[in-house]
User: Which sequence fits this backbone?
């Protein structure tokens, strides 16, 4: 789980006479992540596509274009089918003719409708003006202009124009129509020239007859006719979609497979007679891979496991495990027969006897996690895919993220809703892995939220579980744990701060331990100690000192009382002993063993990574960052409390540090009366539910909307804060990412069958 699946680099060497058979077999196995040949070997060239590659590519483009026109998706497929070459020749051509013809007509109709809409937009000013369209053009001695502007400014410009003998201005609400008789010696278009400086914007006059209303009615009627025809075309296309969807999706799959197969030689190293294909497969699959190819083509190929990639580094020779030659294996001897056409395996040897190995390439990463953990890979990949050499933190996130989230929200009601949402996403989006994975994450977060909600005794912020289960059935004085909002429970709130710190210490210890192991494998003990061991010593030394008697009376008391026998979490721990080594003379304070450990870690860091030494306070700051867990817990609890306070009201029993807050679920008791054996001392808020019908209605809205808001903010606060702790505090101690996705040569069939 913490390591990716072990990968082996293999080569397949053989005669070109059997290359097509090898491609067919390897494609069917869907195991080999092919290494692209870069052309660096003397005497070897990249292979040429197989016959039919260009034709298959062209058909694939056609099919995908038709799918786009018909807006197909996987849900339209229907049962699997066999798609023959004859069907591609005949049925595809027929579908293409029909669909393209309908699509062309649809585009023409849409274009014509857009033109009519433009015309109708253009005619609106003329409807406002109220002058027949044929009266606005066709004059020999008059010039006409229609547009928008300031009538006074237009008339002033016309009055002052010597080139205009006479004019008349007609005005609608927003539109001006200007008829002008130019002077005998005036230039053409003199009216346009006069109006240039008159704050006038001209509108083109349509070439039409009749009133604007008649013209608009005519165009609207034409649009209605075109839209009706468009509906018919759309219906025909929908019918084509229904009839052709299964065939087109299956045809795309078949053609995609054909293109993969025919273009595969482009990644091979080839000579006139032989070829070499190299790539990565899971190590545990090698024997099956070898057997399948040898069953298909016999001894005319040689399959070799060139190396088994170790987990200790990337891209360097010393980290690869060479696989010793096995003379007993088929093809183990150089020069074994390989071709019916005169070629042999020798043709694919670069140096006459040693297997040709392409340049080092990073093995692909296959995250090896159980099914229940796999949804959390999406959270890791959101940062980056783990590199082959490093730990995969997915299982840690699986264990910590839902716990962080559930602890911060901690409510049975919210947990049930989160769980339901997660289950819906996980079960209804099998064809969309990202949504399915987020569903799995949400499902786990919801379950933990519900579990913590039961422990807190809360459902939608109400302490009903505490009352009826923990106090009523189990007989406890209160729920096993509390959030600590009321004054009487403030020790719980303080205690959660301590718990958050301890969680941070544990979480960061795991992170730096991962980094230590990686440095030990990648480099040596020295690097591991300097780069990660130093931080482990500093952090643990500092925090053991903080939780020791050395700071008693200086540090907050709740640090030492949270876990005492009478603390809120009675584990019997009251702090570490001082472990004094000697007394520092100047400050008269003990120099303790934990401080020595911290100092040793600091010296190691300063020697090995002097630049990082200036960040030594990270061992304090990083841990304190985890107190956001307690902060979000109290914030979310406070929001739910506020929503319920507004609706149900809250009264107080006892006073001062012993004060407890209670919701007025059934009724609101009066001050001075007894409730649950305690005197009511104060009414914080009477509650909308205890008012008039109008206030009850408002209260219901507040209750529903308020809890929905808390539910949503749970994702944006608890979810994001939990993710931040994973990414910022945990990941950056050991995780680089940059892994390459495993992309085997093959195809997972959905729509076709070979049978």
Assistant:
């Amino acid at each position: 789980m913490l390591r990716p699946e072990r990968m082996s680099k293999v080569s397949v060497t053989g005669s070109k006479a059997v290359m097509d058979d090898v491609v067919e077999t390897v494609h069917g196995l869907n195991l080999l992540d092919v290494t692209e040949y870069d052309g660096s070997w003397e005497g070897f060239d990249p292979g040429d596509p197989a016959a039919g590659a260009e034709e298959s590519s062209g058909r694939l483009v056609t099919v995908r274009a038709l799918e786009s026109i018909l807006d197909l998706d996987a849900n339209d497929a229907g049962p699997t089918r066999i798609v023959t070459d004859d069907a591609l020749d005949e049925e595809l051509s027929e579908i293409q003719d029909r669909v393209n013809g309908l699509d062309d007509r649809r585009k023409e109709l849409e274009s014509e409708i857009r033109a009519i809409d433009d015309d109708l937009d253009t005619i609106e000013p003329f409807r406002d003006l109220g002058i027949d369209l044929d009266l606005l053009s066709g004059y020999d001695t008059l010039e006409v202009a229609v547009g928008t502007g300031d009538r006074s400014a237009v008339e002033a410009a016309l009055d002052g124009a010597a080139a205009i003998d006479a004019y008349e201005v007609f005005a609608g609400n927003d539109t001006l129509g200007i008829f002008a008789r130019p002077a005998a010696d005036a230039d053409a278009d003199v009216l346009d020239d006069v109006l240039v400086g008159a704050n006038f914007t001209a509108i083109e006059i349509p070439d039409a007859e009749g009133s604007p209303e008649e013209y608009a009615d005519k165009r609207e009627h034409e649009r209605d006719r075109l839209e009706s025809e468009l509906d018919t075309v759309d219906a025909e296309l929908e019918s084509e979609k229904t009839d052709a969807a299964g065939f087109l999706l299956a045809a795309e799959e078949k053609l995609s497979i054909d293109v993969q197969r025919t273009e595969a030689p482009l990644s091979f190293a080839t000579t006139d007679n032989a070829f070499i294909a190299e790539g990565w497969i899971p190590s545990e699959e090698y024997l099956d891979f070898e057997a399948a190819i040898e069953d298909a083509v016999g001894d005319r190929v040689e399959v070799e496991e060139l190396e088994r990639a170790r987990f200790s580094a990337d891209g360097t020779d010393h980290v690869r495990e060479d696989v010793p030659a096995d003379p007993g294996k088929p093809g183990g001897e150089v020069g074994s027969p390989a071709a019916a056409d005169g070629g042999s395996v020798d043709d694919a040897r670069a140096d006459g006897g040693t297997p040709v190995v392409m340049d080092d390439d990073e093995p692909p990463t296959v995250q090896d996690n159980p099914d229940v953990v796999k949804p959390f890979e999406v959270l890791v990949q959101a940062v980056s895919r783990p590199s082959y050499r490093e730990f995969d933190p997915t299982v840690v996130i699986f264990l910590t993220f839902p716990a962080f989230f559930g602890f911060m929200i901690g409510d049975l009601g919210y947990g049930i809703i989160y769980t339901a949402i997660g289950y819906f996403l996980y079960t209804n989006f099998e064809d969309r892995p990202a949504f399915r994975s987020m569903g799995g994450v949400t499902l786990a977060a919801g379950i933990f939220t519900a579990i913590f909600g039961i422990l807190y005794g809360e459902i939608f912020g109400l302490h009903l579980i505490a009352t009826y289960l923990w106090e009523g059935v189990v007989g406890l004085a209160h729920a096993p744990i509390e959030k600590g909002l009321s004054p009487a429970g403030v020790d719980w709130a303080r205690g959660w701060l301590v718990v958050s710190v301890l969680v941070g210490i544990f979480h960061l210890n795991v992170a730096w331990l991962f980094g230590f192991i990686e440095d030990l494998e990648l480099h040596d003990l020295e690097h591991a100690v300097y780069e990660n061991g130093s931080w482990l010593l500093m952090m643990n030394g500092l925090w053991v000192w903080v939780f020791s008697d050395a700071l008693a009376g200086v540090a907050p008391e709740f640090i030492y009382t949270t876990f005492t026998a009478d603390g809120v979490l009675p584990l019997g721990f009251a702090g570490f002993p001082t472990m004094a080594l000697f007394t520092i003379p100047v400050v008269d304070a003990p120099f303790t063993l934990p401080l020595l450990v911290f100092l040793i870690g600091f010296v190691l860091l300063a020697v090995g990574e002097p630049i990082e030494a200036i960040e030594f306070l990270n061992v304090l700051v990083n841990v304190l960052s985890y107190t956001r867990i307690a902060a979000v817990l109290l914030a979310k609890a406070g929001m739910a409390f506020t929503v319920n306070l507004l609706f149900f009201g809250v009264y107080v029993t006892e006073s001062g540090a012993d004060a407890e807050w209670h919701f007025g679920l059934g009724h609101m008791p009066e001050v001075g009366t007894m409730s649950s054996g305690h005197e009511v001392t104060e009414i914080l808020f009477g509650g909308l539910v205890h008012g008039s019908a109008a206030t009850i209605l408002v209260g219901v809205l507040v209750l529903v909307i308020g809890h929905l808001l808390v539910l949503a903010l749970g994702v944006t606060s608890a979810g994001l804060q939990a993710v931040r702790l994973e990414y910022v505090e945990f990941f950056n101690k050991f995780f680089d990412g940059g892994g390459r996705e495993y992309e085997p040569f093959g195809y997972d069939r959905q729509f076709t069958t070979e049978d």
